[in-house]
Amino acid sequence: MSVVYKPVVSMTLGSTLNANDIKEGDDVYFECNIRANPKEHRITWYHNEQQVIQNVTGGVFISTKSLVLQRVSRNDGGLYSCSAANHRGETSSQPVYLRVQYAPICVQPTPVVIGARLDEALRVRCLVSADPADLTFSWQFNNSGESFQVSPARYAYRAVASGGTGSELRYRAASERDYGALSCRATNAVGAQHSPCVFQIVPAGMLCNQTLTITCVISCPISIIGARPSPPRNCSASRVMHEQRWWMSVRCIAGYDGGLAQHFTLDAIW
Questions:
Q1: Which residues contact 55 (CB under 8 A, 6 or more apart)?
Q2: Of 45, 65, 187, 262, which is most buried by a Cβ count within 10 Å?
């Protein structure tokens, strides 16, 4: 007697692979294990619940009960599953998580320009994304006349809940020659960061009335901190009672601060 049933499906990472030691650039394969009667007529693969389509130029190969990914990147990480169908029905496997480890990259990949007054205390935060997140950091200063490594005593390691891990540098421009480029680079077990995070320190107010020239080695947009502040907007006024006296309450949405502490002045016109 032959018993018919819909597919029983499980999926595994390739038997020759170590799930805890897959890095960007490695080749990865999955195997879909199926028992079915009658034999399955369709096998479908999924990555984060989106169907995987064969893409030879992109290094994605589907062969019978195997899925091959060549030269994986961090974007290939996530949940993979397979499903099989026969005329009795369709069944999906439990998902398998693919962890792809990678060297650090900047959370903010574009250079940032920061305006600062002489002797103003700055806290420059360098945020990176990396796996594993066990990182070491180094900072370097460059201007037209000198280049040197910043002492580790001036920066600290920070874990940031909003996503990413970073290092915070305490910096003060004591003289004109302290204006220049600060670059931050992180290293983990996979390797060193390929492109550093760059912060251009310029005199405060410079961006308001002078020409600023920045040379970027690669084509990239630039974020600027230190420009003229924007005015408040959407202001509204109302009367409020406080301690048996009437007061006028004015509320506004603050505009862009230009990267510096800003102060507001309210003029009453009678």
A1: none
A2: 45
Q: Counting every residue, how long is the chain? A: 270
Domain extent for 47: 5-100
| Distance, CA of 9 to CA of 7 (rounded, Å) | 6
H/E stretch holding 209:
helix 206-209
Q: Which tens digit of pLDDT belongs to each residue from 5-16? A: 999 999 999 999
Q: Are residues 18 and 126 in the same domain?
A: no
Q: Are 158 and 125 in contact (CB under 8 A)?
A: yes
Select from 80, 11, 75 the least CA-distant residue to 51.
80
Answer for the pair 106, 185: CB distance below 8 angstroms, yes or no.
Answer: no
**Ramachandran angles phi, psi of 162, nearest 5°:** -75, 0
- Among 204, 202, 207, 212, smallest CA distance to 180 is for 202
Q: How many CB atoms lie within 10 A of CB 117?
A: 13
- 90 and 129 fall within a common domain: no
